[in-house]
Amino acid sequence: MSHDGIDLDEFRTGLADSVLREIAEHLAALAGSGATAAIDLRSLPLTNADRSELESRLGRGEVTVKLDVAGTSELWETRYSGVWWVRHFGDGGRIASERIEIAAIPQILVSHDEDIAAAATRVREEVEAHGSA
Amino acid sequence: MAPRETIGEELLRHGISRRALLKYSAYLATMMALPPMASRAIAEALANARRQSVIWLSFQECTGCTESLTRSFSPTIEDMIFNLISLDYHETLQAVSGAAAEEARLTAMRENKGKYVVVVDGSVSTKDGGVYSTNAGKTNLQVLKETAENALAVISVGTCAAFGGIPHANPNPTGAVPVSDIVTDKPVINISGCPPIAEAMAGTIAYLVTFGKLPDLDALNRPKAFFGDTIHDRCYRRPFYDKGLFAKSFDDEGARKGWCLYEVGCKGPVTYNACATLKWNGGVSFPIQSGHGCLGCSEPNFWDKGGFYRPLSTSTGGGATVIGGAAVAGIGIGVASALISRRRRTDATKEPKS
User: Fold this and answer.
1) Contact assignment for A6 to B257 by CB distance below 8 Å
2) Looking at the domain assignment, is residue A114 inside a domain?
3) What is the value of pTM for the model shown?
């Protein structure tokens, strides 16, 4: 995005370096003790260039997931196992929440116990309805 | 009355998975500057909470605040707020009208006595008994007193409800006052702005539902999560201010190069709001990014400060100094007591000198 001579896409503040150092510490902790962590990227004054730099240096790994709940979300594991980029979109496709999660798997991907119980009921009803037809 | 379902139960009944709450929790944590790892605990708290009864009263206002909150056209993360609350009364949005509408308000007040939240947009007319703004045969003043009496808390959305706003501007023909001048015996949260940022309204309500307490407030009773920094502090043009590079008019070289708008009247340095970070219209832009200085619409008496295009360094009748001082003091004070902050607010909203 360019505005009157300021190109916000090109302006780097150096924050990408800082975030990478923080990720490195958290990932070492995950590897050592299993401690999970998260970094809220929206709370940091990242420019578009900073975000692009961070995204590029973390790269993309083997897993990419698209979520469709309360709007869309995109998650991917970076090329560093255990480092996940989690991006939730809001109204008009803007980024509503964006975080780096350092975990074996982001919490939002895990099926919740109550959802599993409700699904078990629903699928039983489906089987019974089909059987009585 | 049968107890309301928990939010988790209701979402489950509608086939919405717990992931929706986890996602909203991440969004809420971002908005309210909460620790990112708190998301899971927030989601659990929300799942076990009951929908918050909300009564929305519209007084001397333009409906811009409601427009700001409901501007979304497709199901998005922002809409989740409507799964967390039971909007029991809202004149613009409710389907019923007339006596049935008023009965809905009275029913919600009766069934949720001491637990409902009152949201007000618009200032309150007090002159001649408040006759200049009435609805259903009652003055706004009467309805506010009656509705707030057994409320848990009151949220004043928009600068009109928070500080009197444009109806309060000189010569204030209706005797308009902010809600906090009328409601003095319970918490009043101010979400100022003309209009306020939707996330600030939704985030504050969601925080109340989740934690059952008020968020940290500044000296003007505004949530610090949204009003903790000035526009100037978070402005992408700030480096030009620091270098002394200013636009002198709206069509000069400085304006074309995107330099700081301080000298063409920007009120960013004394205006506390989150426009520079959350932005508007789905995060597209905010006034300064569009080439116009901040008007200071989230501060008291912004309409009467001597001109939108006059630099702050010229006299503005003392208003800017008072506001800047009060707001800076607020950061040091932390969560101000209602009495102290009310006194400061009264100082800041006093009639400007002509």
Assistant:
1) yes
2) no
3) 0.82
